[in-house]
Amino acid sequence: MKRLIALTGAFAFYTLSASADLRATGDLGVVIEREAGTVQIVNTSKPAMLSRIEGLGDLSHASVVFSRDQRYAYVFGRDGGLTKLDLLQDQIAKRIVQAGNSIGGAISQDGKVIAASNYTPGGVKLFDADTLEPLADISAVYGDDGKLSKVVGLVDAPGQRFVCSLFEANEIWLIDAKNPRQPIVKKFKDIGKAPYDALLSPDGRFYAAGLFGEKGLALLDLWQPENGVEHILEDYGKDDEQLPVYKMPHLEGWTMAGDWLFVPAIGAHEVLVIDKKDWELVKRIPVAGQPVFVSGRPDGRQIWVNFAFPDNQTVQVIDVKDFNIVKTLQPGKGVLHMEFSPRGEAVWLAVRDDDRVMVYDTETFAETARLPAQKPSGIFFSDRANRIGW
């Protein structure tokens, strides 16, 4: 009997020890440390760094998507690296270098296919999400002389599809990846000059590409792609003085909140408000600088805006109720990225030049935590696994 009690006690101790090491994937996120080529795994409910993973290459323009079970993060590096991180074991599960210069990626609706968009060579590559085995290589060839275009604005869309834009080709491509080894590509040509990034509406219906070479946006209705691409906002700011563009706005940081689309203006100190019903410009909100990310709190009540140099120490908050700026913050030098907690009670800011991540309460605007980080840039939380187009 004493031996049985001893064994039972030992088993209970082992069970408690094992349980202490468990972590919930919904609590996790990653912080990109761009210059070191490292990634922090963080706890987002009780802000803390859990581990630091090294050896991810050039992360100067890194982006991240998550597996549908939220265990794995796929990191797309500027050097063409595609790294699969195990968030539970704090290690690299698999890493390949799939291109010379990569700008981002996406994961398919069913979570089985990873897509990477590339500058060099221009194109989109598809990979098996489990093994990173290559499935397809879609070259971004355009024109009669077979040139290759940079691919930007790659997002996942319902129906096992991906959508992307071709910068030099002035095209949008809709990729059907139901058979990922033989994807079908529908090309929309002459959509506007130099599409530089894009967003997908939260319901997966509208794909909007920003145009760097002319005014306006290129809009594709994925429910009715046969209608082609519509050009909207082409008259916006056509008579305004164009300021130098210090950093390209990120359309994936645009926001749809209720009936409104909030858009960073190129070369202007403004956030644009667009009526989603008719795609007409409703208001131009003056802000502190050239906006980069215009990010909405999950409930759609607030829009948080950060800025390009020389105003990148500032963050402003817009109340969607009346389109007024309700708070201006000075978190530190070089605020590069913002990420909301899943239900929006907190926002995390990457403050690159001060080597820290800061967390704010979105109701009181009080700082609630700060974490050391080496030149942080992107912040990505695992709840992105459950969103379309992220």
Automatic annotation (TrEMBL):
Q: Which residues form the signal peptide?
A: 1-20
Q: Which UniProt keywords apply?
A: Signal
Q: Which domain of life is it from?
A: Bacteria
User: Which InterPro entries did the record assign?
Assistant: Cyt_cd1_C_sf, Haem_d1_sf, Host-pathogen_enzymatic-act
Q: What is this protein called?
A: Protein nirF
